[in-house]
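ok trying this again, last paste got cut off
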Amino acid sequence: MQINLKNNKETEELAKMREAGRLAAEVLDYIGPFVKPGVSTDDLNQLCHAYMVDVQHVIPAPLNYRGFPKSICTSVNYQVCHGIPGPKKLKNGDVVNIDVTVIHEGFHGDTSKMFFAGKPSILAERLSRITQECLYLGIRAVKPGARLGDIGAVIQAHAESNRFSVVREYCGHGIGRIFHEEPNVLHYGKPGTGEVLRAGMIFTIEPMINAGKRFVKLLPDGWTVVTKDHSLSAQWEHTILVTGTGYEVLTRRKEETEI
């Protein structure tokens, strides 16, 4: 497994990754007030695109990536990930994951967050909260000498103890100059297994948790993944740096004081 450690001082890799992460987080802060009933996901895409290109002067990484047609991913209700923004308007109670990746000076910052259009159901609020807790538990497992399986194990345990299920077909990934690189970061597994974490590694943790069964299917558009049983799904994502003593959340938003 070829893992690129981001600690080249000559190219200032870490500084550029930190800035890319900050900018990606800033997009989620910006778009939040616009997520409400009556707004289409394509409206949200256009707002994010304009903010990234005209204000931040960054490149929206998803746009034209392997043919993806939009600048962000918007996954609504039972859509698990990679939802394509479109004309359908959000209704009161809808939940939507907005997934943002920017390219700044050649480096990627990748993050996502759950949003509610209006008032969510009790189940939707609980699923979103538990999924965020899964992400934070996974992040806290990151330190030099730990293993990738430690991350997946704590995520799986927390999700399943709350009677939710972990999607297994999609995972976190290494990131840097390349959008998706080694290693793959599974959101399930056994402690003490998998690649050993080393300082300088940067990867995403992005658990996808379903309210029903874990099984998913890919829609004919070739991108949108949905739950087979049409149960709600939630996802949260951060880009994480392994430091000499623990971790640094490169895409941490201002309100996230607990990580």
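PB: full thing came through this time. The longest strand covers residues 95-104.
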